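Run log // design_07
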């Protein structure tokens, strides 16, 4: 069987995975959860690859997200900044230039899985976020914190080891 190649990300090497071995790996409780989550994406036929976040001030938004996400923006498009994250792109959209009328932040939170929750919370506070709920364990088992970016977009950062994926909820 020919291995399926995943595109290499900057700073990483190409990953070779034999697709026929995925189902047993995905169900194996001895394989770390984060590995199962990444490998699970390989079998999907559709995926979310970009999400847009509106900003009323692209320069302020850039400074905020570069500090919080700990990565530089890709400014290929003049009215948008792209932040290449693991498996998806966060596109910061300059609302004032794109002629969309009055500014409105996203109505729902964006959720980010992170490895170092305390460090991310520190970076968000240093970048000027308003913490709306400090680090804590939620009823659904996630260890997370909630905040607002300078434009009022809701963000939630969740410890990768506690991601709730909608399966096995006590109330289901």
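design_07 sequence
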């Amino acid at each position: 069987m020919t291995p399926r190649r995943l595109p290499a990300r900057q700073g990483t090497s190409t990953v070779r995975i034999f697709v026929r071995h995925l189902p047993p790996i995905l169900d194996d409780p001895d394989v770390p959860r984060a590995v199962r989550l990444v490998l699970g994406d390989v079998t999907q036929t559709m995926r979310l690859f970009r999400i847009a976040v509106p900003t009323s001030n692209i320069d302020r938004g850039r400074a905020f997200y570069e500090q919080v996400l700990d990565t530089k923006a890709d400014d290929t498009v003049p009215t948008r900044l792209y932040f290449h994250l693991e498996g998806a792109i966060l596109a910061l959209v300059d609302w004032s230039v794109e002629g969309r009328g009055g500014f409105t932040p996203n109505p729902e939170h964006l959720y980010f899985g992170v490895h170092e929750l305390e460090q991310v919370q520190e970076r968000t506070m240093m970048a000027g976020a308003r913490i709306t709920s400090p680090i804590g364990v939620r009823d659904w088992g996630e260890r997370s914190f909630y905040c607002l970016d300078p434009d009022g977009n809701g963000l939630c950062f969740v410890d990768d080891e506690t991601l709730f994926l909608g399966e096995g909820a006590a109330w289901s």
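The CA atoms of residues 17 and 139 lie 36 Å apart.
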